[in-house]
Every structure is written in C-alpha cells, then in structure tokens.
Amino acid sequence: MNIEDVKSLISLIDESTLTELHYQTGDFQLLLSKNKLVQTNQQSSDNIQAEVPSPAVIAPVQNIKEAVSEAAVAKEGKIITSPIVGVVYLAPTPDAKPYAIKGQSIAKGDVVCLVEAMKLMNEIKSEFDGEIVEVLVENEQIVEYNQPLFRIV
Predict the structure, then answer these.
(1) Are 6 and 30 in contact (CB under 8 A)?
(2) How does residue 97 score in pLDDT terms, banded at 50, 70 and 90?
(3) Per mean pLDDT, which of 23-37, 70-84, 127-141 is the most reliable?
(4) One GO biological process from the UniProt record (predicted)?
(5) Which of 76, 79, 61, 75 is nearest to 20 (CA)?
(6) Buried b (16+ CB within 10 A) or exposed e, 105-117
(7) Is 28 exposed, middle or buried (0-12, 13-18, 19+ CB in 10 A)?
(8) What's the CA gap between 91 and 112, in Å, rounded?
(9) d(CA 4, CA 43)
(10) How far is residue 141's CA from residue 72's CA, in Å, rounded to a whole number?
C-alpha cells in the first residue's frame, strides 16, 4: 500500500458517515478514526473513560472492504496536479466554455485549465493522453501546490 492509497482511504472516511476504518492486508494494518474515542481523567492516569459509538454507527467489516475496493476502482487513472498555488479557472473567460470537461478526450499538451498566481495566468497542460473521468476542482477555487485537478484514464 502506497501513500496515494492511504490518502484515498482518508478521503473515503472523510466523505462517509464512517467514524473508524480498520484495514488489514498481510502484515500491514491501518486504523483511521474521525473522532477521539478515549479521554483520560485528570485525577488519575488509571481512570480511563471511553466514548463508544453506537453499533449502528460502525459499519460491518464486509461493508468497509467493499467501500475500500470501490474507492480503489474509482481512483484509477492518472492525475493532473497543480504545479503552483493559486486560483484555478476552468475556462478562459467567465462566459466561455471550459477547457476540459468530464468525458472529454484530451491529448498530451492540451490546456485543461488556468491557475492564476501573483496576477499571472499560467496554462496547465495535460501530461497524458486519455479521457477526463473526474474534475476534482471547482472554478475559481484556491488550489495548493501538487493538488489534484483532473483524473484521466
């Protein structure tokens, strides 16, 4: 399991109603949790209180495995990332059609969006040939360095 897989699992748990995810394969184990479940009592370190979520909140292991495999399938493909921090523009002007949309075929070198940084518009070009399967940002959204913009297969 690589760092991208771990990021995918973190994203999956953030977007779901799950509060905890325990993933194990071979000798690798990963435990992700949204909430702090254990609180210590200040009077004594032997006194530990645990807040346990109701059984309805914790999904069965089989459902978690299905969700993980669905996330892996959904996350296949190549990613176009932002090379700089700035504001992303999906079209050249507000009333123009977008450079790239979901389902569109693109070639290596095609402009997919603009990122404005320090009053300069920087064309972001595709590094891959393929079809856009996911637009990961919204128009005029602030993006970070190396933030995913588009997923291509």
Answers:
(1) yes
(2) very high
(3) 127-141
(4) fatty acid biosynthetic process
(5) 61
(6) ebeeeeebbbbee
(7) exposed
(8) 9
(9) 42
(10) 26
Higher per-residue confidence, 98 vs 26? 98
Q: How would residue 44 be classed by pLDDT, with cut points 50, 70 and 90?
A: very low
> Residue 76: its pLDDT value, please?
76
Domains, the chain, in order of start with CATH, read 3-33 (no CATH), 78-152 (2.40.50.100)
Confidence bin at 55 (pLDDT 50/70/90): very low
DSSP secondary structure code for residue 24 in this structure: E
Crossing angle of helices 3-15 and 61-74, rounded to 10°: 120
Whether the Cβ atoms of residue 69 and residue 63 lie closer than 8 Å to each other? no
CB neighbours (10 Å) of residue 41? 10
Q: Which is nearest to 123 in space by CA: 101, 97, 91, 95?
A: 91
